[in-house]
Predict the 3D structure of the following.
Amino acid sequence: MKKTTAYLLPLLCSTLLAAYGCRQPSKPTTPTVSTAPQHTFTQNGSVREMNIWPENMEFPEREGKAEFVSYCGICHSLKYITAQPAFSRTTWEAEVHKMTEKYGAPIDSAISHKIVDYLVAINGE
Ligand code: HEC
């Protein structure tokens, strides 16, 4: 190795290091949704929090809403559910059953019953 290269190489390396190596990786910013109110619920014994999108606040207030909003919006929008035609209780039961059995929705039977009651009340035949 030539003498000049032997001096220049470390200089070049440290310049490159200074320019790129020491740069802080930009921190990912967590998007905050100020308009979405926090909703607290209990699932499998632990307390969880989630943001409710404003559209989800529009559903009628009654028994079972909290469960419906908490569990049925995990995988798809809630509007996807209420955009269905008015179903009979049997059909809503089958739908909720399909979500838990086929798609793995983490909903126990007590909560499922509440959700079915809610769905029949707001979008039943
Ligand atoms: C674990 C994920 C998951 C959860 C939680 C979930 N669903 Fe679904 N849901 C799905 C999938 C997957 C589909 C099918 C989507 C498709 O076919 O494009 C679906 C579709 C639907 C449909 C459309 C009709 C159909 O049968 O495909 C309805 C109605 C529905 N879900 C209702 C509910 C209700 C009510 C709840 C709450 C009890 C719920 N979902 C919770 C995964 C879920």
Observations:
- The mean pLDDT is 80.
- Residues 71-72, 74-76, 81, 84, 95-96, 98-99, 103-105, 107, 115 surround heme C (CB under 6 Å).
